[in-house]
Amino acid sequence: MAEQVDVVVIGMGPGGEHVAGRLAESGLSVVGVEAELVGGECPYWGCVPSKMMIRAGNLLAEARRVPGMAGAVRVEPDWAPVAGRIRDEATDDWNDQVAADRFTGKGGRLARGRGRLAGPGRVVVDGPGGGEFQARLGVVVATGTKPSVPPVPGLAEVPFWTNRDVVAAKEVPRSLTVLGGGAIGLELAQVLARFGTRVEVVEAMAGLLPSEEPEAGELLVKVLRRDGVVARTGARATGVRHHGDTFTVTLESGDDVTADRLLVATGRRVDLTDLGLETVGLDPGARALPVDGRLLAAPGLWGVGDVTGHGAFTHVAMYEAEIVVRAVLGEPGPAADYRALPRVTFTDPEVGAVGLTERQAREKGLRVRTGLAQVPASTRGWIHKAGNEGLVKLVEDVDRGVLVGATTIGPAGGEVMYGLAVAVQAGVPVEALRHMIYAYPTFHRGVEEALADLRSGDTPE
Ligand SMILES: Cc1cc2nc3c(=O)[nH]c(=O)nc-3n(C[C@H](O)[C@H](O)[C@H](O)COP(=O)(O)OP(=O)(O)OC[C@H]3O[C@@H](n4cnc5c(N)ncnc54)[C@H](O)[C@@H]3O)c2cc1C
Ligand SMILES: NC(=O)c1ccc[n+]([C@@H]2O[C@H](COP(=O)([O-])OP(=O)(O)OC[C@H]3O[C@@H](n4cnc5c(N)ncnc54)[C@H](O)[C@@H]3O)[C@@H](O)[C@H]2O)c1
């Protein structure tokens, strides 16, 4: 006999935990099903520990910028406090009791185990907290993603690292090859290089961070080189071997890239295969859970977070979670709107981005103008001097006279992006943005310069 409850949430990462917690707080009987740790990838192996690592790497980099600016320092990197913080402050040594208690403290019930659908509203949990539940109001699938491992010959047979191994490392490796020059690969490559690891990044596409503006990838190649990171772009791996303590990645060019460790950071994939989706008429072979603007995948079945394929970011998971909370509670509110989806890659300089890149805007058929401003040429960038690399790039839909995308790279690139996210989301006219006051001397004054460049910039096509 299945136990009757109001809602079952499968997967208690940032998305699932938010939905389950909010619904439990509102008085519903909610079962949260989790196969690993309550909190998901972000606090234990993703955002939080990686940003602690980045904070440490950035401190070293700032200290190294002292000569010529503020005197002399001796910098001796030590990974021990970073590994210690990750264990003690971020992950409780990968123990989720605090998160589990937070959920049950809101009135939720945690079922530890692997959940799968067994028909509309029905969820079977295999594991220590197992059982069968029938949800009166609905089921929420928030099962996240796994590392995507490309079919490079030999790769599956070698003991490569994923983000989880880097986060858990008690010592940094002497050398590291990073397969994939996206967000994970670059953030981790830069940190480890700053702690003394010899790092090479192998990126198959023509530039680093290929989903962002090409200017971002070009700039990152230069700044990473200064950290000692070799970035090989347009580099296709044709084979991987592991002999003794050495990983060898052979490239199409014939070059071999060798290192003590190999990190695979070639994207994340949604795995719907074992979720019983066929029992509710959905395709378990789909690339992502197909949901509508209210995150509904089927009657009484919602999707939240990475699994929906709208952007593998914690803020997307939380945003979608809130929409599902409203839907389940029958509260009014807008449908999901991804026009101003913000991204921040926390390299130094940070790469902030929102909305469409120039290429995406042109592919949508928009008439586009772009404006560019260089951070080192701005007053604040010039004052900042060491570590001042960056730029602001704006993408305007000429016919509507509004920004549809922006990229803000610089020492506070992620923060500078926020104002532009508001402009994209609210469709603030470019004309109005031009007649605002931008505080002097901030990094965000680069926005004003990039707006001026729009006026004098590319001729509309
Ligand atoms: C190294 C790294 C750094 C990152 N940095 C950032 C960042 O700075 N900013 C940012 O916004 N995002 C970042 N991300 C992405 C972010 O971690 C994810 O977008 C976020 O965790 C997605 O949340 P989610 O709830 O959709 O899924 P997840 O966090 O993946 O959680 C899904 C949960 O579901 C559980 N689960 C799966 N299947 C089942 C099942 N059948 N039954 C029960 N439980 C199941 C899993 O065990 C997991 O706990 C980073 C990711 C990585 C890997
Ligand atoms: N700061 C953040 O918000 C942050 C940080 C880390 C991760 N994330 C999230 O996690 C997701 C996954 O990160 P990721 O870096 O693994 O994925 P990604 O999709 O951002 O980058 C993967 C990179 O690997 C490259 N690649 C794919 N196959 C390859 C191959 N065979 N050889 C060489 N290169 C190959 C791709 O061209 C791409 O540049 C991100 O897209 C992002 O949504 C966010």
Automatic annotation (TrEMBL):
<dbReference type="GO" id="GO:0016491">
    <property type="term" value="F:oxidoreductase activity"/>
</dbReference>
<feature type="binding site">
    <location>
        <position position="115"/>
    </location>
    <ligand>
        <name>FAD</name>
    </ligand>
</feature>
<dbReference type="GO" id="GO:0000166">
    <property type="term" value="F:nucleotide binding"/>
</dbReference>
<keyword id="KW-0670">Pyruvate</keyword>
<keyword id="KW-0547">Nucleotide-binding</keyword>
<feature type="binding site">
    <location>
        <position position="203"/>
    </location>
    <ligand>
        <name>NAD(+)</name>
    </ligand>
</feature>
<dbReference type="Pfam" id="PF02852">
    <property type="entry name" value="Pyr_redox_dim"/>
</dbReference>
<dbReference type="InterPro" id="IPR004099">
    <property type="entry name" value="Pyr_nucl-diS_OxRdtase_dimer"/>
</dbReference>
<feature type="binding site">
    <location>
        <position position="267"/>
    </location>
    <ligand>
        <name>NAD(+)</name>
    </ligand>
</feature>
<dbReference type="Pfam" id="PF07992">
    <property type="entry name" value="Pyr_redox_2"/>
</dbReference>
<feature type="domain" description="FAD/NAD(P)-binding">
    <location>
        <begin position="6"/>
        <end position="321"/>
    </location>
</feature>
<keyword id="KW-0520">NAD</keyword>
<feature type="domain" description="Pyridine nucleotide-disulphide oxidoreductase dimerisation">
    <location>
        <begin position="342"/>
        <end position="450"/>
    </location>
</feature>
<dbReference type="InterPro" id="IPR016156">
    <property type="entry name" value="FAD/NAD-linked_Rdtase_dimer_sf"/>
</dbReference>
<dbReference type="InterPro" id="IPR023753">
    <property type="entry name" value="FAD/NAD-binding_dom"/>
</dbReference>
<feature type="binding site">
    <location>
        <position position="51"/>
    </location>
    <ligand>
        <name>FAD</name>
    </ligand>
</feature>
<dbReference type="InterPro" id="IPR036188">
    <property type="entry name" value="FAD/NAD-bd_sf"/>
</dbReference>
<feature type="binding site">
    <location>
        <begin position="180"/>
        <end position="187"/>
    </location>
    <ligand>
        <name>NAD(+)</name>
    </ligand>
</feature>
<feature type="binding site">
    <location>
        <position position="306"/>
    </location>
    <ligand>
        <name>FAD</name>
    </ligand>
</feature>
<keyword id="KW-0285">Flavoprotein</keyword>
<dbReference type="InterPro" id="IPR001100">
    <property type="entry name" value="Pyr_nuc-diS_OxRdtase"/>
</dbReference>
<keyword id="KW-0274">FAD</keyword>
<feature type="disulfide bond" description="Redox-active">
    <location>
        <begin position="42"/>
        <end position="47"/>
    </location>
</feature>
<protein>
    <submittedName>
        <fullName>Pyridine nucleotide-disulfide oxidoreductase</fullName>
    </submittedName>
</protein>
<comment type="similarity">
    <text>Belongs to the class-I pyridine nucleotide-disulfide oxidoreductase family.</text>
</comment>
